[in-house]
């Protein structure tokens, strides 16, 4: 059953309670490899479900527009101070509702409509809010995009520099949503200084790895850092903006009143819990294990003939082209889900297929590492994936069902926060 238990919900709305119980059971029985997903602790779950959700708190601690903030202010201050200490920054804003609104606040704080901004192209592994054309950030600003080399699948910093010198952006984003390699923050910072641009590091995917010492930190290189609080950081669905002192006031004004009203206080409390957990020595062990598992899984997949973008991974994330396996990304992802292996279909750099039916798969190890799986289990996962793709090509549903049973049998030995 779901933990914490939901007896009041089950009585008031049994239909919804049944759906939640079903989702909890699904998360327990599946090898969850979506790179942006994780399991939060029971403490984070409890904080998210408290009476803090009842309270409006427009403004910031000590400067609210509503009364009754005697306990809310200390909650937010606790989250802010923990964020500053964990990442070693001058300023933290924990109010953004999620990653995309956090990034929009950066635009509002720093640039004006029509200004030139620069970010990684979505097909190369960037994020929609880094100036991609279907996003508001691509419509309201003059966005120029860098990518990766076709021969290596990696960012060529010389090409990034040439583009920046030619276009003179006011703001440069580094980071993204499907980057399996270490981000060279010092190199980006040098380019930003050369063209007098503000450097923004979007570490939504790798924030937990940064906090745990498993990926270099952008602090001291990027003036502004945006991140979600879930993914590798293992917190609730929220976001933070971290910055130097110079940009603190502009960012705060952009979040409130620029884009948002009252913060979600229950989420703020859960962020504080997650940041407290991330400050413990055990979290450094977790971050290292995430990377070790990803490397082991990448090696096992490559040994079975999967084509990995850039040849492997330095972090939690693997991006691969499954064309050589005789299948496209979407049908592969759907077959793997039936087999108890949850990931997402994804474009790969220079993909000839359309985004809704791409050539690739994106997967990562944050969630399975939280469950306690280690490098010894990674070859088995790769073997299941290979068998599933073969079965999908042969239309062998029975083989896929058999793999799902094997997956559930393995995971039964690994506890999950949120299910008992």
Give the SSE map.
Blueprint: H1 7-12, H2 14-29, E1 31-32, H3 42-48, E2 59-60, E3 63-64, H4 72-87, E4 91-93, H5 99-110, E5 116-120, H6 136-140, E6 142-146, H7 157-167, E7 171-174, H8 185-194, E8 198-202, H9 207-211, E9 224-228, E10 239-243, H10 248-259, H11 265-278, H12 281-303, E11 307-308, E12 317-321, H13 329-338, E13 341-342, E14 344-346, E15 360-364, H14 366-371, H15 378-394, H16 397-411
Parallel strand pairs: 1-13, 5-6, 5-7, 7-8, 8-9
Antiparallel strand pairs: 2-3, 4-10, 9-10, 11-12, 12-15, 14-15
Q: Any overview of this molecule?
A:
By secondary structure, this protein is α/β, with parallel strands linked by helices. The chain folds into two domains: 30-40 and 285-411, Aspartate Aminotransferase, domain 1 (Alpha-Beta Complex), CATH 3.90.1150.10; 47-278, Type I PLP-dependent aspartate aminotransferase-like (Major domain) (Aspartate Aminotransferase, domain 2, 3-Layer(aba) Sandwich), CATH 3.40.640.10. Helix content is 44%, strand content 13%. It has helices at 7-12, 14-29, 42-48, 72-87, 99-110, 136-140, 157-167, 185-194, 207-211, 248-259, 265-278, 281-303, 329-338, 366-371, 378-394, 397-411; strands at 31-32, 59-60, 63-64, 91-93, 116-120, 142-146, 171-174, 198-202, 224-228, 239-243, 307-308, 317-321, 341-342, 344-346, 360-364. The protein has a seven-stranded mixed β-sheet with strand order 4-10-9-8-7-5-6, sandwiched between helices. Strand 5, helix 6 and strand 6 form a beta-alpha-beta unit. The longest helix has 23 residues, at 281-303.
């Amino acid at each position: 059953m779901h933990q914490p238990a939901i007896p009041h919900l089950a009585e008031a709305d049994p239909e919804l309670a049944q759906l939640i119980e079903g989702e909890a059971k699904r998360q327990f029985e599946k090898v969850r490899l979506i790179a942006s997903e994780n399991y939060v602790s029971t403490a984070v779950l409890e904080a998210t479900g408290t009476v803090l959700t009842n309270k409006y708190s427009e403004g910031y601690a000590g400067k609210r527009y509503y009364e009754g903030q005697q306990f809310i202010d200390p909650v937010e201050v606790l989250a802010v101070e923990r964020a500053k200490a964990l990442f070693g920054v001058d300023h933290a804003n924990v109010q953004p509702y999620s990653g995309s609104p956090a990034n929009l606040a950066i635009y509002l704080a720093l640039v004006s409509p029509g200004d030139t901004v620069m970010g990684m192209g979505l097909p190369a592994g960037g994020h929609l809010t880094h100036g991609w054309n279907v996003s508001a950030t691509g419509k309201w600003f003059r966005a120029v995009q860098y990518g990766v080399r076709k021969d290596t699948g990696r960012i060529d910093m010389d090409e990034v520099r040439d583009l920046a010198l030619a276009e003179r952006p006011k703001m440069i984003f580094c980071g993204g949503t499907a980057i399996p390699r270490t981000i060279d923050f010092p190199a980006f910072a040098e380019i930003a200084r050369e063209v007098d641009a503000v450097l923004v590091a979007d570490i939504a995917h790798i924030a937990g790895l940064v906090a745990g010492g498993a990926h270099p930190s952008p602090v001291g290189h990027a003036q502004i850092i945006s991140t979600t609080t879930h993914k590798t950081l293992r917190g609730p669905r929220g976001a933070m903006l971290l910055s130097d002192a110079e940009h603190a006031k502009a960012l705060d004004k952009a979040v409130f009143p620029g884009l948002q009203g009252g913060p979600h206080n229950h989420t703020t409390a859960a962020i504080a819990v997650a940041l407290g957990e991330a400050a413990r020595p055990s979290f450094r062990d977790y971050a290292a294990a995430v990377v070790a598992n990803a490397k082991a899984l990448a090696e096992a997949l490559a040994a079975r003939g999967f084509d990995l973008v850039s040849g492997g991974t330095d972090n939690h994330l693997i991006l691969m082209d499954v064309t050589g396996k005789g299948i496209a990304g979407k049908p592969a992802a759907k077959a793997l889900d039936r087999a108890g292996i949850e990931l997402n279909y994804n474009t790969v750099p220079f993909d000839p297929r359309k985004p809704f039916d791409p050539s690739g798969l994106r997967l990562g190890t944050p969630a399975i590492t939280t469950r306690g799986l280690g490098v010894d289990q990674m070859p088995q996962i790769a073997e299941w994936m290979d068998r599933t793709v073969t079965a999908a090509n042969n239309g062998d549903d029975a083989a896929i069902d058999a793999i799902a049973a094997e997956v559930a049998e393995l995971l039964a030995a690994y506890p999950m926060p949120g299910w008992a």
